[in-house]
Design a protein that fits this description.
- By secondary structure, the chain is α/β, with parallel strands linked by helices.
- It is built from seven helices and 18 strands.
- It has three domains: 90 residues, Translation factors (Elongation Factor Tu (Ef-tu), domain 3, Beta Barrel); 113 residues, Nucleotide-binding domain of ferredoxin-NADP reductase (FNR) module (Rossmann fold); 84 residues, Ubiquitin-like (UB roll) (Roll).
- It is globular and about 60 Å long.
- InterPro entries: 2Fe-2S_ferredoxin-like_sf (IPR036010), 2Fe-2S_ferredoxin-type (IPR001041), 2Fe2S_fd_BS (IPR006058), Beta-grasp_dom_sf (IPR012675), DmmA-like_N (IPR054582), FAD-bd_FR_type (IPR017927), FNR_nucleotide-bd (IPR039261), MRET (IPR050415).
- Its cofactor is FMN.
- Keywords: 2Fe-2S, Flavoprotein, FMN, Iron, Iron-sulfur, Metal-binding, Oxidoreductase.
């Protein structure tokens, strides 16, 4: 995987909605940017050493710019605050090449797109891609209010506006989204995509699974997650397969942090188990999965885990490091 950083300039910073700004990024050398597909994101290296993932929400056919949307999150761990308060037009940032952990299933007979709040960013790119290829889809966009709905005018002016349904929390009850009704009858070939706040996504996925949607037809991307601490969290050992070295992981310590203190650096980004940057192969032992990145089937296989947040159910984990 190409880990080289790309130097970009903030060509434009725009207020898209209350507490949401978009940033248009162009290559500092004027060159074309690497191509991307709908659902892709880039890692943005922020002032102060933070790295955060932001979905690309411009037309995937564009090579002269990337567009990202950022919500000022009151519970920010520093990323969104840095983007809103310190990153201005003209500033130069370092980003990764686009990565896609949330791709469209091109064999779908129909797509159902659900966006909650700032989760519109990858979903909008998907809608534009599906519209461009004349693929059938329906989009539902839920937000707290019209003033907090990013890209509202862009969607209303689009050629697929008739396929989009807006649902405002402060609006009339008749326009609110009923997930049990929408997801009641899963059909072969119909794929569901959801992105947004964790509570919204949990509600969508729980409703879909309860209605019998096959896991293969559910696609989702979490922006952030609260890593759940447990009274059962205990110390355990991690063995590095290449050297046989054993590192003790304390009950209040992450695997990634303990390994870093032992001089073993693992690439990390979100530190919440949502981005997959730190994904590591497990050769022996049973992980205690706390991530939101792996599917339930991938977690059940127990052959990989996210050392930024996940732990071990067994006394020893042997890692492919």
């Amino acid at each position: 995987m190409n880990s080289a950083k790309i130097s970009v300039r903030v060509a434009r910073k725009s207020q898209e909605a209350l507490d949401i700004c978009s940033y248009e990024l162009v290559a500092t050398d004027g060159a074309a940017l690497p191509g991307f597909s709908a659902g892709s994101h880039v890692d943005v290296h922020l002032p102060g050493g933070l790295t955060r993932q932001y979905s690309l929400c411009n037309d995937a056919s564009e090579t002269h710019r990337y567009l990202i949307g950022v919500l000022r999150d009151p519970a920010s761990r520093g990323g969104s605050q840095a983007m809103h308060d310190t990153v201005q037009e003209g500033d130069v940032l370092q980003i990764s090449a686009p990565k896609n952990h949330f791709p469209l299933a091109h064999a779908a007979s129909r797509s159902l797109l659900l966006a909650g709040g700032i989760g519109i960013t990858p979903i909008l790119c998907m809608a534009e891609r599906l519209a461009a290829s004349a693929a059938p889809f329906e989009m539902h966009y839920c937000s707290r209010s019209q003033e907090r709905t990013a890209f509202l005018e862009r969607i209303r002016a689009s050629g697929f506006a008739s396929q989009v349904h807006f649902h405002f929390d402060d609006g009339a009850s008749v326009q609110k989204l009923s997930l049990p009704d929408l997801l009641a009858e899963p059909q072969p070939g119909v794929h569901l995509y959801v992105c947004g706040p964790k509570g919204f996504m949990d509600a969508v996925l729980q409703t879909a699974r309860a209605s019998g949607w096959p896991e293969a037809q559910l696609h989702y991307e979490f922006f952030s997650a609260e890593v759940v601490k447990s009274d059962d969290d205990a110390s355990f050992d991690v063995k590095l397969a290449s050297s046989g070295r054993v590192v003790r992981i304390a009950a209040d310590q992450t695997v990634a942090k303990a390994l870093a203190l032992a001089g073993v650096e693992i690439p990390m980004s979100c530190e919440q188990g949502v981005c997959g940057t730190c994904l590591t192969r497990v050769l022996e032992g049973e992980p205690d999965h706390k991530d939101m990145y792996l599917t339930p089937e991938e977690q059940a296989a127990n052959d990989q885990f996210t050392p930024c947040c996940s732990r071990s159910k067994s006394a020893l984990l042997v890692l492919d490091l």
